[in-house]
Specification:
Two copies of one chain form a homodimer.
Chain A lengths: L10 H14 L12 H7 L4 H13 L3 E4 L3 E4 L4 H4 L3 H7 L3 H24 L2 H15 L4 H18 L3 H10 L2 H11 L4 H17 L3 H23 L2
The structure holds a DNA duplex (30 and 30 nucleotides).
Chain lengths: 233, 233
DNA sequence: CAGCTGTAGTGGTCGGACCACATCGCTGAT
DNA sequence: ATCAGCGATGTGGTCCGACCACTACAGCTG
């Protein structure tokens, strides 16, 4: 009788599934250290090369973390770890897909902002105001963009849903915003952006979720509409 | 003078960035075939092993597709390709993070259902009804789950935003639903689920976005609340 | 012309070697 | 006895070369 299980897919793919399964079944806890690459390969009856490819793939997915000279560890499996790859989607999307992505962001960002209006603490609100002021105090597009991102990041964080915040972080990834930003700024959109941010801030101060939701939706919607018009060219 | 660029991170990591950049810059179009592993490795001045790890990682991310004996190709970079990995998040999330994930799903699902109410075609509506009927005609949990998933999939597809549909697909991934489903069914929740699905269907037929949004939000919210109560144990 | 076949080229797997780095125990001076 | 310094060990990172499995296509065969 042959005990060799039916080979489905590539060896590396099987290794990925096996490791994922071990984590899903709780046999590997977050933060725990895995056996060495050499041992793992031996356990699953494959070469170290194939096992390394599996580990590399899971590392990129944010499931594992390899520390040179120390070992391989399971990440904390928190939202930030696993959703980091979400940025790749934003980076590689083009044309109509960017609009769809922005539409998703509008939905999530407006919800997050509404939640934040109800839950934001005084400290967090102070941080929001810090970035708002910094944004209005300079004309350097790079700096404005940085504070713009931080502005929304603090708000998303105040919404109390780390998963949602992590997704929004990915949707607002550096290159994504930078690409849209380039042409956007040359239409005097800065002034409008500042007004919109001010409106969001007002709603947060007033602790008015509905106003916050509307302001955030309008804010993202502006960019969305602009991008949509660009595609029609 | 040394021409060797400053080595940042691992060789494999650099290869991943380089290939991603090539795609982002449009030097590699969707569907296009890449040079062979051996050539790519030579071009970037690294070993085939390291290049293979990079390719494997991008394959898992849904950016590349390797066809044994044929070559390596860029995927269509559509929502479905890139967001397939989103299922991993759902598979490996536990406890409070599952609730957060469900909260995100509630937001997106309700929006998608509202959009569907305005845009769904007769054919799509017929498909929805097919799964609704099949779902009510059996008591086999497995089959019910399958039609449940299909029910929501058709609706998400009718919303007209493939990106949103792909994310929802990941959030409703098989194992994710199966895990929640297990205990959920033993509380007579089937009857309630059927009522909720009927409500969603009614809203779609009436082409009433607001009713659809409310019905979908309530539907997901029910599961969300149940899961939240389970964690309190 | 259709079908088969052989062959070159591709990704998939393997094993081994060596390098770079982290860790920890040992050494030896204080 | 304490602790700074150092060296051995083990780990992931990289490279190489070989071979296997599969695809694609040119060329042959009927």
């Amino acid at each position: 009788m042959d005990e060799t299980v039916p080979q489905k897919g590539t060896v590396t793919q099987r290794a990925i599934e096996r490791i994922k399964a071990m984590i899903a079944e709780g046999r590997l806890e977050p933060g725990q250290r895995l056996p060495t690459e050499r041992d793992l390969a031996a356990q699953l009856g494959m070469s170290r090369s194939s096992m390394r490819e599996a580990i590399r793939a899971l590392t990129v997915l944010g499931v594992l973390e390899a520390r040179h000279g120390s070992g391989i560890y399971v990440t904390q499996l928190e939202a930030g770890d696993l959703l980091e790859t979400f940025g790749v989607v934003a980076d590689l999307s083009r044309g109509p897909q960017l609009v769809e992505l922005l539409e998703v962001r509008r939905v999530l960002e407006s919800t997050a902002t509404a939640l934040a209006a109800a839950r934001i603490t005084a400290d967090q609100l102070a941080e929001v105001e810090k970035h708002l002021a910094a944004m209005n105090a300079t004309d350097d597009p790079e700096e404005i963009l940085a504070h713009d991102l931080a502005f929304h990041r603090v708000i998303a964080g105040a919404a109390g849903n780390d998963t949602m915040a992590a997704i929004l972080e990915g949707l607002s990834s550096r290159t994504f915003r930078a690409r849209v930003w380039r042409g956007y700024e040359e239409e005097g959109a800065f002034a409008r952006t500042r007004r919109e941010h001010a409106a969001i801030h007002r709603a947060l101060v007033a602790r008015d979720p509905e106003a916050a939701r509307a302001a955030a939706a309008a804010h993202v919607g502006e960019v969305e509409e602009w991008l949509r018009s660009q595609l029609g060219t």
